[in-house]
Amino acid sequence: MLLSVAHSGTDYPDWLVRLAAGGLATLEPLEDPLVDRLAWRAIARGIGAVIARAPRAAIDCNREEDELDPMSVEGAALGGERSARLRAGLGLIPSRTPRHGPLWRRPVTRGELDDRLNQVHRPFHAAIEAALDRLTLLGGEAVLIDLHSMPPRPRGQPQAQLVVGDRHGSSAAPWLTALVAATCRQAGYTVELNDPFAGGAIVDRHGRPRQGVHAIQLEIDRTTYCQADCRTPGAGFERVGRAG
Fold first, then answer.
1. Average pLDDT, whole number, for the chain?
2. Using an 8 Å Cβ cutoff, are 35 and 147 in contact?
3. What is the spatial order of strands in the sheet that 191-193 belongs to?
4. Helix (H) or strand (E) holding 147
5. Which of 21, 30, 77, 81 sits most deeply, having the most CB atoms within 10 A of its CB?
């Protein structure tokens, strides 16, 4: 088994903060807060992990390289079939958030984009691929669990505490997805499959169930482990960490 954490990076360089129209406070909400810390018990037991330290605001490792938003990348085309994520401003370089609006003082140049791809995005995926190859060589099959967190829905809208995503069966064998969901339920959590998150570029890229490589995205409701600010460890933090 291998873990990946793409959205918990907090190493904000000064140049990135200077580019932000509203400063650091507008970039931090893009994080999956503390998810890297939730994984520490599993890592201590010897399970490998690939964890992005660069912030999602700089580049999103759970997006494909061509998921470019013209608002954030210079010269990016405004395609006719833009994904829902791009329409929401959550492409390879996030362009805006519902609360803060446009994030950047100017679009990223192609040269700057290449630097971020070469320094963060490509090494992240290369590390996952190499680790999965080693696991497959050793054991015949491998499982990637891609960890994320989700903000609480508006009051009155129900939300499962955990969402297990396998790209509707394309990134992992159905029996494995069912086992992961059953294990989460046995730990006392409410679970949904692929709704509202079926999995992003990480599980889509690395899941090859026919070749024995399975990839599952696990979304964790932040209220299960954070305080009301959704950034500080809460009463359920240890419980969620133990479940991991």
1. 94
2. yes
3. 48-51, 2-5, 142-150, 213-221, 162-165, 191-193
4. strand 142-150
5. 30
pLDDT in the model for residue 153 = 79
- Between CA 237 and CA 143 the distance in angstroms is 24
Q: What is the mean pLDDT of residues 83-92?
A: 88
Strand 2-5 to strand 142-150: parallel, antiparallel, or no bridges (unpaired)? parallel
Question: Does position 244 have pLDDT exceeding 70, yes or no?
Answer: no
77-110 burial, b at 16+ Cβ within 10 Å, e below that, comes to eeeeebeebbeebbbbbbbbbeebeebbeebbee
Q: Residue 104 phi/psi, 5° resolution?
A: -115, 150
Backbone phi and psi for residue 211, each to the nearest 5 degrees, phi listed first: -100, 10
Whole-number Å distance between alpha carbons of 169 and 194 = 9
pLDDT (average), residues 41-52: 95
Q: Which two tokens stand for residue 88?
A: 């929401």
DSSP code for 7: S
- What is the fold, at CATH topology level, of the domain defined by 2-243? Aminopeptidase (3.40.630)
Tokens 């090859």 identify what position?
208
Contacts of 203 (CB under 8 A, 6+ apart): 144, 146, 165, 166, 167, 171, 172, 215, 216, 217
